[in-house]
Amino acid sequence: MAEMSAMNRKLIQNLAETLSKQVKHFNKTEAECLIRLFNGLLGDQSDRRVGNGLDRGKFRNILHNTFGMTDDMIMDRVFRAFDKDNDSYVSVKEWIEGLSIFLRGTLDEKIKYCFDVYDLNGDGYISREEMFHMLKNSLIRQPTEEDPDEGIKDLVEITLKKMDHDHDSRLSYADFEKAVRDENLLLEAFGTCLPDAKSILAFEQHAFQDTLER
Amino acid sequence: MGVALTRAAQWTTASSGTGKLEITPVNESLLKEILEFVEQFSSRHPQEAKHVFKEPLQWTTSLEASDFKTEYDISGPTVKSHETDKDGHPMLQLTPPSISVHSFSQLSKIVQLATDKRLKEVRACLEANRDPVAKMLGPSFATVEGEDSSVLRLLEKVKEGDQAKETEIKVKLIILLQQLDTQLLSNSLKLISQEVRLSPAAVKNDVELLKSFCSEGEKRVLTSVQYTSDYEFTNGCRTPPWRQVHGEICYLVIKPCDTQPLHITCSTAGVFLNGGIRQEGEENSYDRTSDVYKDLVTLLKSKSPHFAENINKQDFAVQEELPTQKVQHVELVDAEEQGQPQRSYEHQEKNVHEKARQQLVQNKPGGKKKLEPSLKWKNLGLASPYDEADDKKSKKNAVSERFAETQEKMQKKADFSVSSLPGRQSSDKTKTPGGVGGADDFSESSSESEEDEEQSERRTESNTDLPSEYWQIQKLVKYLKGGNQTATVIALCSMRDFNLAQETCQLAIRDVGGLEVLINLLDTEEIKCKIGSLKILKEISRNSQIRRAIADLGGLQTMVKILDSPDKDLKYLAAETIANVAKFRRARRTVRQHGGIKRLVELLDCVPDSAALTEEQEKDVEVARCGALALWSCSKSTRNKEAIRKAGGIPLLARLLKSPHENMLIPVVGTLQECASERSYRIAIQTEGMIEDLVKNLNCDNHELQMHCASAIFKCAEDKRTRDLVRQCEGLQPLVTLLSQADNKQLLAATTGAIWKCSISMENVAKFQDYKALETLVGLLTDQPEEVLVNVVGALGEGAQKPANRATIRKCGGIQPLVNLLTGTNQALLVNVTKAVGACATELENMTIIDRLDGVRLLWSLLKNQNPDVQASAAWAICPCIENAKETRRDTGAAAASIRSQVQHFREDRQTFTHQIIRRNTEPKMNTIVFNKLSNQVIFDEKAKEVERSSRNYLEVIDGQPPDLHPDLLSSDHQVIKDNGIRHRRPTVCNLDNYVMKTKSEKGRQNSGKVRHKRQALQDMARPLKQWLYKHRDNPYPTKTEKILLALSSQMTLVQVSNWFANARRRLKNTVRQPDLSWALRIKLYNKYVQGNAERLSVSSDDTCSEDGDNPQRMQTSGGEFSKPMYQSVIKKEGATMMGTGLRAADAASLAEDYVTPPPKYKSSLLHRYLNDSLRHVMVANGVMDARKRNHSGSFSSNEYDDDLLSPSSSETEANFVYRAETMDHGSSKCDNGGVQKEKVRGKDETYWKEINAAMALTNLAQGKDSSGSGTTSCIIQKSSHISEVKTVKVPLVQKY
Lengths: 214, 1297
Fold this sequence. Notes:
The complex is a heterodimer.
Chain A: H1 2-22, H2 28-42, H3 45-48, E1 54-55, H4 56-67, H5 72-82, E2 89-90, H6 92-104, H7 107-118, E3 125-127, H8 128-135, H9 150-163, E4 170-172, H10 173-182, H11 197-213
Antiparallel strand pairs in A: 1-2, 3-4
Chain B: H1 2-8, H2 25-44, H3 46-49, E1 52-60, E2 72-75, E3 78-81, E4 92-95, E5 98-103, H4 104-114, H5 118-128, H6 132-137, H7 150-160, H8 164-194, H9 200-212, E6 222-227, H10 241-244, E7 248-256, E8 262-267, E9 270-273, H11 296-303, H12 305-313, H13 315-318, H14 324-338, H15 343-361, H16 373-383, H17 388-414, H18 422-431, H19 438-447, H20 468-482, H21 485-496, H22 503-511, H23 514-522, H24 527-540, H25 544-552, H26 555-562, H27 568-581, H28 585-593, H29 596-603, H30 615-634, H31 638-646, H32 649-656, H33 662-675, H34 679-687, H35 690-698, H36 703-716, H37 720-728, H38 732-738, H39 745-758, H40 762-771, H41 773-779, H42 786-799, H43 803-811, H44 815-821, H45 827-841, H46 844-852, H47 855-862, H48 868-891, H49 896-920, H50 926-959, H51 967-971, H52 974-979, H53 985-1008, H54 1014-1021, H55 1023-1031, H56 1040-1050, H57 1054-1071, H58 1079-1089, H59 1102-1108, H60 1110-1121, H61 1125-1135, H62 1141-1156, H63 1162-1191, H64 1198-1205, H65 1210-1216, H66 1245-1266, E10 1272-1277, E11 1287-1292
Antiparallel strand pairs in B: 1-5, 2-3, 3-4, 4-5, 6-7, 7-8, 8-9, 10-11
């Protein structure tokens, strides 16, 4: 067992080194910690099967418990954004890369990431319908209103007016990027898909310090 | 002992047996008494002490064998007493740890032996023997609760007759014990009653109250309330004494309407149900069968639902007279919440009410001031959603706020502390959860002026023409309210697209309730929402109404809290918003009170020096910048300045001052220049080396920054060291350079201010000279706003201290604009202008220009200015003018005529001016100024003299006779004149005049420092009235119009004037009681006979009187035609060729000048008067001579002439005067004693002699003239006792040829 873990440690260190070179926001130690954390999250069984990673359920649990996200759809989209190869599993590499943006991404990276999250169908545009879909839970329904969707539609119009610079009734990446650059608050315009500062801090502390101590 | 022990002593467990005595004060005192009793027992009652107990008292003792001494058998640990009973048993036996004692004598001994352990022993003994009496005397004597039959039993035994002696002792013993018992009982009762919680009186009150509810009818709450016992002890209890020791006060039987009768025990500990005491003596019924309630009403409420229900209806009666104000207040608040139409009426009522309350309680000291109706209103406003009625409401808010403010002020003024009634206080507390810290608030509002209070809210436009933005914003606010954070962020971002700088949008946000939502968002955890909200608030808070609304909604408190947040975006946004909101006093106060200043100062802590910054550092800098901005806003309050200093802001600001970023520097320098009004800051700015940075920043391109730097220097340069520092840092040149920025008026004002203050140092003036600053400054004298002018003129005034600069100013044509500015109204400007003009006037050429421009007249007129500072500086300015004027005159004799008219003008001015001075003289602080003016006045007089002289010279020139008198000599000492052998009559008079002036000025100096009497001031005030009275002495009844005019000229009220005249007429009548006298005669007589302190009707105004009466005529004649017959005759008969008519005229005019000179101060006025009179006497003497010459009559007493020639007022004067004219032989110029003789007053007795002497002298004088002799007449004026000094004036006589 000791031999095993020694080999394992070596493996992790190698992996960490390669990954930390690919990802700009983590150094080797941090990457190592995240790998350990990833392995910890995977549990024992996945240790054997290479190529596997976190499945949707596990990932959503992490998002929910660690980063306090609540919106199912957005969490689903975040999973998709992490899972670059669309194999329904977040591999170690995807995990590190995803977290790099998730935790420490620059504005550009975050704009890209958010746009990916919000582009539900992946066609490169956020359409009116997609917006409606994402915003439909954002207003408290007033029982007095005749049309409960009225407000949402209005909100979508407001958003379009604000962000749709080329007036094609849908948000291209360029639109989105420009709008966010003008007003940083619009980065998460259609739902929280990034962790807030507090949970980032908590997570990093947990990952980098607690894991090291182990 | 038995009863006391069982009842009074407080045992730990109620049941007897193994209980222990509690350690309570009651027990303590009980034990002590028992101890004393036992200790003295064997000595007091030796026989009884020997009585052997039926059973020994046994207890565990801490005593040891070693404690026992003689009379005891000590064998190891056990001890036996020598003393034995008749059976041989030892009376005391100690087998540790137990001890058994058989008699009181032994007990006494033990107590004595035990010394410090005695209390413990007694305690142990009593604890082991709960009923000692029973043990001592046998079980038949055991204390049975409730009954005391021991004595009876004993008596029975006595009756039995056996063992008589023993029984006798027993009886004695038991009686003694009983005595002890009662004593103990009463003592403990006393103690217990001291700790009563529910007092008998309180219970009685309650019962009476309850009884009143037992009345028949609907209100009936109880059927009956009865005591079980009718007997009431003196202490108010109705329970038997042995129950009283338990603290029980009385037993009640209360029959409620709905339940069984309640048997209630009222005890000090509370009220509870008992087992049902009907008759005394049922032991078990005393026990408690319910919980203990705090009073009867609560018990009844819990036991009887009916009672509980009904008693509430009558609550007001029960709850001991609640303050009615509270009730009313509550009602009012309710009404307001319901928004009833008569709200305003009630509001007023409430105000009245509160005022009344304040008056009611104002004498109660120590209370916290709390009167915050505004807060209450605010809360109401907060609670209610904004709607159409809101507008009205907010208006009302403003009204009530204003009301509160005025009330605050009123309170401050009255300076009493207002405490509220307790009930009200608590209600206030609940209503103002903010708990705005009382005293601070109030002192605050006093310390800060209202100057920055902004306009209260305006009515917004009516609904009809609402802009489209309004509806859009309303929709967005709806989403803000009803959306989750995503929707909120979108709404916030969208809202920012509106033109938030536009007032319609700002007000729309407020009116649709957006402000509340925005401020509420600040309280959430969502950083994005907070940021978005702050971004909007930051924009809209540029509007003053919004600012107020934000402050009202408590936004500042939240923002101050946000300053602690780790998120830098939030921090700087919050700081910037605070900077915007804290533009008015209340907001600044709020920021300070919530610790905002400290937090803002903490924001300043960053590293601004390095040019290249990381992103994080840049944010830090931004945070610091916004912090500085907020501090800048806050620093407009004095207390905030102090708070910034205390929070350690100065070093941080000093560090930020080194920052290379302009946008950082502006708020920093802004804060500094704002704070520089405080001395501590000025020192700090100087010592922390900030001057250097300020100077450095003067060189930048940013006008705003330059302006603030210059302004900071302006404020700091009051200090000499700072001025030097500015020079050393080479800050003067940039300042001069900045003068070219003539378009930016603010910058110009600050720059010129800095130059002004800097040029207070002469070294700086020299520098400015090098930089040719004055030329530029002179150019700025025209077409500039007043704040610039004030500084420019100030700078010129300082600069003109140097002669070279004076010339510069003249050459640049600065005199004219300066003189023109004398006509301004701005007080600060006038002060500076007069100073500048005064400084310029020291140069002769300048003076010429000033004169030409009529500047002197303007200066004189400024003496009448309301502002004492202006007066003072104007007076100073006149000094050099007059000095130079004479030189000017001499050169240009032709100007004499104009000067003459000017002089006349001055005289009028001077009169009013003097009146004013004297009137104001009551203020001590005025004295210095008055002094200045007085000295100026003297100089003026001298000037007048010079004018006369020059005019004389001029006339002499006309006459074709060379002036044989060098003008310089005129101003020199009379001694010199005499030594020079000047035998000109006219110069002597002039000289006398000079002397008069000198003495007068001396006198003025002496007196000016003294605080004048109010009385004098009043008399001075009445001067115009006196004048009027004297003028109209034939009919001293002013018409109403005249009265009004007089009131205006005297600064009295119409009533005062009327009263004054009534009093004056009465005085006149009372003084001279003869009827049918003309008023004129009365006045004359009054003046003659009036005594003491009372001022003569024309005394202090005697000059004016004479001016009104004799002098004007004289003036006319002399000044005009020179045709007064007397003089003419003199001239002719004496053939005084030197004394041309012109000279004569000048002479007369000059004298007239003197006559009209009003007294500067009371005493000096007296002196002046005397001197005037003396002059007149000289004149008279001349007249006498002339007359004598003419009619060859004998010698006259001067008095006769006085009566003829002078106003009656001088009659008193004469009494104090002695003239001595000494005639010298012709050519004998040595004048033996130099004429300057000091003669002591030798008392009134000598007066007569002196008068004779004077008459003789005059005769001689006349004779001397006759014989064409020339000589010197010395006139020695001896002052009356109230002018202590003896003044000597030597008048050289006119030389005769």
